[in-house]
Specification:
The structure is a homodimer. Chain A contains 14 helices and twelve strands. Chain A is an alpha/beta fold. The first copy, chain A, folds into three domains: about 1-40, no CATH class; about 60-160 and about 295-325, Rossmann fold (3-Layer(aba) Sandwich); about 160-295, Response regulator (Rossmann fold, 3-Layer(aba) Sandwich). The first copy, chain A, has a six-stranded parallel beta sheet, with helices on both faces. In chain A, β9, α13 and β10 form a beta-alpha-beta unit. At the A-B interface, α4, α5, β2 and α12 of A face α4, α5, β2 and α12 of B. Chain A binds a DNA duplex through α2 and α4.
DNA sequence: GCGCATCGTCGAAGCGCTTCTATTAAATAC
DNA sequence: GTATTTAATAGAAGCGCTTCGACGATGCGC
């Protein structure tokens, strides 16, 4: 493997000159530059990333922090990862995967102290997230996909849960639904203050309140039987429910089973909206689900770009980006045909 | 950030002695070791990964090569990635994601020449894969999740497609099905010689031949409408088909639509088996799909472990590991109730 | 009790870069 | 025309580690 010294010798310049030519750190005459690049070409030279990182104190490596949650990672999360990797590559960075457990902050701290990565992107952020606290205290560069409770001074990109839930509720209301239920992630996720679980539920409460509708909510493990149970429990609280919004993809089959056992069909008797849900999952069921589709790839990409921006410009002001989900109407929603008891119609 | 020199000074030993203590490269007296570790503790010392890598010529960084296929990555692939990251971490390695396009081999070559990674794990391998050829020619350490046509001397872990397909066919045959169709990945994937597409189809041909059954096959894009079409086309070739095996997850909703439009219900009139398909997807549809479930996490893990073994032992013999899929019977399969025309019964 | 291996440690030479300071030649100022 | 920049390059000092060769101090055989 040729080194910079080899290039310098062949091009008949000093080693430092080669470095300047490569990095553009100092002006180099056109003629010299040509000679240097020709020599690099001839030798098939590639700068050594480790040496470069050691000398410059910038490895151009980023880490993506993704804990494996109880609920399991889905297509949405996969898209964060691939988009993040792409964005990193486009900016000449490498992306390392750190599958950090939420509890093992010491492990994370050690990793950040090894000088391997210039900064980290945190995924699956909780409202009070030890990882975030640690990074902040250590003054280690990072950005978030998601956000915590106290996000002052931290760059993040997150889903605008208020918009998402409100748009879903409004859409169903326009279809005539007035008894709309919400099936959240699990109680455990809620207790752990997983951002989406807390924010979406709060947003739902606000949205139905503003719309003058009842707040019908269940938390539910990520499994069909749990969805079935949650649906039954909702119906026993209010049998006139005609529509349901959920963020809990894996509960959906159970919910649909409950609906069909009632003798109802989708969308004629019951409407279903999956929020923050990928087309992949939505198209697996019949009828295909109307969704509020998250900009997953964009989030992964922006998460990385925010971090790089902070790394490269001394620029201290923080970017807080909330992205909307897009309503994609498929076959699981339709006009309300069962007006609530006591209503006229 | 404290350096090794700081530790050495505090422990009153030479810098090299600290290094030996940390790496166990040379014997160190128990007393000295204690003093050194105490000093490290006191200073909160963490070795610098870049410096260590530069000096030792081993970065302890691996790269996972995952091209984004036309068909889109699924849960199975996500599990490769997370399991690979976990396995790497357990062995004190870091895992970088390289979302390499299959064509850009030069890009890959450059990456391998930067000295950043010690080896790579290739995913989504094709029978004649340029990436593999390049790695082999460059004598760069690697392992495969999947395998190419000529795998001599290369470590890999792959699914045993013969076992998978044969077990699925046998299972259906035992249920009395004698007209079994196979829906493969797309023609494009087949033409690109994507390993699973080629191997599963060949395995199906062999299995039905041995069983004395007709070879009913369609290639099909990864989308419900394509699945619908493929199903229709299969039925017009042989209307007495009563069971179908597919590896094409995303075509399934279309296939199921076709079945229900025929007035058939699953599993009473028609059986469906999804091979190399995750529980996640299988449980999204109703009835839940009987699957041949891939050992995704194990594959990701073993892919990494094979590479590490090769890296750390000079050991030259290669490991070729074929893993079976596990038959998980859910609601989409049952006894054959529509015997083929011309058959007695 | 002398030679010889072994143990534990040290000092120094890199690993392949970046970057600081120095140097020379040409350009500009007045 | 001399002083002063500026442009272009060179040389050298690190970055924080691993590893080689050396060396004194033990332990052992016979």
């Amino acid at each position: 493997m040729p080194t910079m010294a080899d290039v310098a010798k062949l091009a008949n310049v000093a080693l430092s000159t080669v470095s300047y030519a490569i990095n553009g750190t100092r002006p180099i005459s056109e003629e010299t530059r040509q000679r240097i690049f020709a020599a690099m070409e001839e030798l098939g030279y590639q700068p050594n990333a480790l040496a470069r990182g050691l000398a410059s104190k910038r490895s151009r490596i980023l880490a993506l922090l993704f804990p494996a949650p109880e609920r399991g990672l889905g297509i949405t999360e996969l898209e964060f990862v691939t988009a993040a990797a792409d964005a990193a590559k486009e900016n000449d960075y490498n992306l390392i995967l750190w599958s950090s457990e939420l509890k093992k902050i010491d492990e994370l701290r050690e990793l950040t102290q090894q000088g391997l990565v210039d900064g980290v992107v945190a995924m699956e952020v909780h409202l009070h997230d030890k990882r975030i606290e640690m990074l902040r205290e250590a003054d280690f560069p990072f950005s978030m996909i998601g956000r915590c409770a106290e996000s002052d001074g931290i760059d993040y990109v997150d889903i605008d849960f208020d918009q998402v839930v409100r748009e879903a509720v409004d859409y169903l209301k326009e279809l005539g639904h007035t008894r709309i239920a919400f099936v959240n992630h699990s109680q455990a996720e809620y207790d752990a203050e997983y951002g989406p679980a807390v924010r979406a539920e709060a947003a739902f409460a606000a949205a139905v309140k503003d719309a003058g509708l009842p707040n019908l909510v269940r938390r539910c493990r990520a499994a069909p039987p749990a969805g079935y149970e949650a649906f039954g429990s909702l119906l026993s609280e209010d049998p006139s429910i005609t529509a349901l919004i959920t963020m809990n993809e894996r509960a959906i089959p159970g919910i649909m089973l409950g609906i069909s056992e009632k003798g109802w069909s989708i969308p004629d008797d019951f409407s279903l909206v999956a929020i923050v849900s990928s087309a992949r999952a939505a198209e697996m069921v019949m009828p295909a689900l109307t969704t509020m589709e998250p900009p997953s790839a964009k989030m992964g990409r922006v998460g990385v770009e925010l971090l790089i921006r902070k790394l490269e410009s001394g620029d201290q002001d923080t970017a807080k980006i909330l992205l909307p989900c897009r309503l994609v109407i498929r076959g699981s929603t339709g006009p309300c045909r069962r007006p609530p008891e006591g209503a006229h119609g």
